[in-house]
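Key result, reporting period 2: structure in, sequence out.
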């Protein structure tokens, strides 16, 4: 399986993660989270495989998250609705997302990403 790196190109954390992947000669397919927002099917699979709670997938520091007042609303909607919400707008998804046969990673954590070497 080829690594899929899902990023927002203007995001500084995404730039840092991409540079780290390149410096460590880790091959990946690059995907813009706005132009190619993960689908409901992809998110459902990845969230399950990541073992993380769905709330961890939300970009809680993003403007869209705050605009929609999701801090208050998430506790009142189903997991299915949360996934539909994430799939509706890439800016709601915490980034970068790295899909690999060694795991699903959200956000950049060099220590955790070392498993890819």
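The corresponding designed sequence is given below.
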């Amino acid at each position: 399986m080829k690594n899929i790196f899902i990023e927002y190109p203007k995001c500084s954390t995404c730039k840092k993660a991409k540079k780290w992947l390149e410096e460590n000669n880790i091959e990946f397919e690059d995907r813009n989270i706005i132009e190619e927002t993960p689908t409901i099917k992809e998110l459902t699979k990845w969230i399950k495989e990541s073992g993380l709670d769905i709330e961890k997938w939300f970009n809680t520091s993003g403007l869209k998250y705050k605009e929609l007042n999701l801090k208050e609303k998430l506790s009142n909607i189903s997991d299915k609705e949360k996934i539909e919400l994430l799939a509706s707008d890439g800016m709601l998804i915490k980034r970068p997302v790295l899909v690999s046969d060694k795991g699903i990673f959200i956000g950049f954590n060099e220590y955790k990403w070392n498993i890819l070497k």
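The longest strand covers residues 4-7. The longest helix spans residues 12-23. This case is discussed further under Risks and Mitigation.
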